[in-house]
UniProtKB/TrEMBL annotation:
Listed transmembrane segments: 191-212, 219-236, 256-275, 287-305, 311-332, 344-367
Keyword entries, A-Z: Kinase, Membrane, Phosphoprotein, Transferase, Transmembrane, Transmembrane helix, Two-component regulatory system
All residue ranges annotated as the Response regulatory domain in the record: 671-791
Reactions listed under catalytic activity: ATP + protein L-histidine = ADP + protein N-phospho-L-histidine
Assigned EC number: 2.7.13.3
Pfam families, per the entry: 7TMR-DISM_7TM (PF07695), 7TMR-DISMED2 (PF07696), HATPase_c (PF02518), HisKA (PF00512), Response_reg (PF00072)
InterPro entries reported for this sequence: 7TMR_DISM_rcpt_extracell_dom1 (IPR011623), 7TMR_DISM_rcpt_extracell_dom2 (IPR011622), CheY-like_superfamily (IPR011006), HATPase_C_sf (IPR036890), HATPase_dom (IPR003594), His_kinase_dom (IPR005467), HisK_dim/P_dom (IPR003661), HisK_dim/P_sf (IPR036097)
Domain Histidine kinase residues, every copy: 427-648
SUPFAM superfamilies: ATPase domain of HSP90 chaperone/DNA topoisomerase II/histidine kinase (SSF55874), CheY-like (SSF52172), Homodimeric domain of signal transducing histidine kinase (SSF47384)
Name of the featured protein: histidine kinase
Amino acid sequence: MKKLQLIYGFILPIYFLFGNLEIKGQFLIDQDSFLSPKTIYQSAEITNVGAAILKIEDFLEKQDTFDFEAIAGSNTNLGFTKDNYWLRFKLANTSDKPLSLFFETGRPITDIIELYQVNEAGTITSQITGDLLPFSDKPLSHRKMIFPIELEANQTYDFYVQYQSDGEVINLPLDLHSANSLILSSYKEQLVFGLFYGILLLAGTIYLFFYFGIKEKSFLLYFIYVLSIALLHLSLDGYFFQYFTPDAGWLSRQAVLIAAAFSTLAFGRYVQIYMKVKSFSPLLEKAYNSLHICVLTLVGAIFFIRAGQEFYYPFVNLFGILLLFLIIGTLVTSIRKQAAPDIFFRIGLFFFFAGFLVFILNNFSVIPNSFLTENASKFGTGLEIIFLSLSMANRIRILKSEKEKMQEIALQRSQESNEIKSFFLSNISHELRTPLNAVIGLSKSIQDSTEDQKIKSDLEVIQYSSLGLLSAIDDILDYSKIEKKELKLEERQLEISKVIQELRTITENQVKNKNLKFIYEEINQLPKYILGDKARIRQIILNVLNNAVKFTQDGEVKLSINSIMKNDNTVDLSITIQDTGVGIDQAKLNRIYESFIQEQIDDKRKFGGFGLGLCIVKALVELYQGKIDISSEQGKGTKVQIHLNFKVPTREQKLSVSPIVNGVYDLEGKHILIVEDNPVNQMVMKSILRKWKNTSFDIANHGLEALDKLKASHFDLILMDLQMPEMDGYEATEAIRKGEAGSKYQNIPIIAVTADATDKAKSKVKAVGMDDYMTKPVDKDELYTKIQHAFYLAKVDLSGVL
Ligand code: ADP
């Protein structure tokens, strides 16, 4: 009882004194400088007049016949409606001065709102606003629906407001603002809106860039979603009307609908793709697709069927709610099927739901109106976008690590395939060289021992063809080495004039068959020795010479060599090979060093060849830091100039190898161990060594047997095959170097004699401690030189020790 007395006796008078009071149907106001807006909903009542659009005079006349209802809350929602409503309230200025106020009602996108103000004398003044009229016609230039009103001192006014809508929701904020409160609330909104639109703009742009960067579809959909959400809010807030379509019109009216439809579509599709719905629920996938079809149909209708306008708003909302349920269903299913999206995505969706829920509950006046609840969907959407963006960033991280993993796998695969390739090549080379070794070695051996000229010349053909085959195998191997950048040069002392002589003999033999003339010219006398890779120098010149002969039908082939000694113990060799053949046209000349070009394929049909020769020559010349230059005229001939620079050995180095004197091979009583499993190769080796003076040998079939033989008798040098059963050449060498055959053999010269011409084999041979390396087919001169060289080095070592 006391409490009640307190309220009536004390609080109410204060309220009357400082505030304003509404008596039912009348709102009293005595100042226009308050800081927060005042709602007048308790003093207002509303009636639905259906489709009729009434003039104020007609309404005033008939108003007693209408049923007025009280307003439920400060931001009542009349729902989707095509009906027209009339609101009325009384406003009394209880002060002694005139008041300037602002009355806000309706959402920023209400079609038409008319305000009538009737003073005590019955004079009616009217104002009109709405997004069906041009923005410039608004009574106050503000995105919201606001009427400036003037209240004379001690006057009471009747206010009547007519709302018209084409089917969208009518909301009823009924707020009185002072100039101050209007500015303050606008500032507060600007801050939140600025943040909100800023986040949307950033998220949208960033993910559009990401889409262009990584071409992942979900990023594009996310961008479209953010864009349409921004458009939706811009329209709902009245900014779209104010800044984009100030003249009103169709687009201004439909902007909300279109933006809402597109955001539903883009968000649905985004979730569908981002969560990979298809992978865990074909049923949900179908549901999404059906919903998208419905939304697309609605978009089509919005654009082309004007008559259904009143249904579009409920439909777009219905589809929004359906999407909400669909997403909840997807989330639950994905968690059940252990295909749940990451935590950021789930939090993002939570804010999407929360924002939506508060928005709906607020619309239906279930929760009270406040700045927070009114802007719930903005807060929700803002936070949703932030968390979905975090999830997208997470997705980028995952994509990146997946890509790195793929690259790792690809690298591993390419390494594996490279290993397989080099194994294959070394195997092919081995398998082809072994029989060639037999063909070349034995035919040479027979040639040496027979006097029959016919057999001799036939054997020459066999050897010539075999060498051709051998050089083809070498070309393929070399090409693969060039590709892998594994081609390396040896630096050994060699007799250059001997190499040239050999090449001259080969070419002379070739031109004989074609009735061509071969001219050799040596401008300066060549130095006797140079340091270089004999096989490679031979290969460079022979490849070009072979081409000259191959592409010349009549006339001549000329090889000229000029050598200029330099002060730094080097010699410049200029090798020119000129022919009078078919020549090369300019287009082909431009691409002459490329392997397998079409023109070469055409030539190959005519002339044969792999199309690798010049490509290898160029790579070799470049390895020597030399130069190659080809000039040619079609039908007239071709000129190839090669410039190379070699070191010339000093006097001491020249002594290092004892040359073959007068074709006599003499090992001065040395005993050689041949370790070789292949009987044909054994035969070839036997046939060579047998002819050497003061040379004896024994054969072991594999490494183990070699160790036994070494233990049993004395040997001076080992010729070691690499691939053998029981114990291969590498293992055997390691065992010997460890002293397993006795300590006296730990430093015995070992020369690898192998059909494996790969660099890998070469470097492995060195690594296990062999002294030298040569490839099959065995060339007897090379073998002799290598053996002599090995003995020489062993002697130098020994003298070093002594
Ligand atoms: P191929 O094994 O086909 O001879 P090359 O790389 O040695 O491969 O030569 C490439 C192409 O260059 C040849 O197919 C040929 O068309 C052209 N060519 C090279 N040398 C000559 C030359 N002396 N005269 C005419 N054409 C040549």
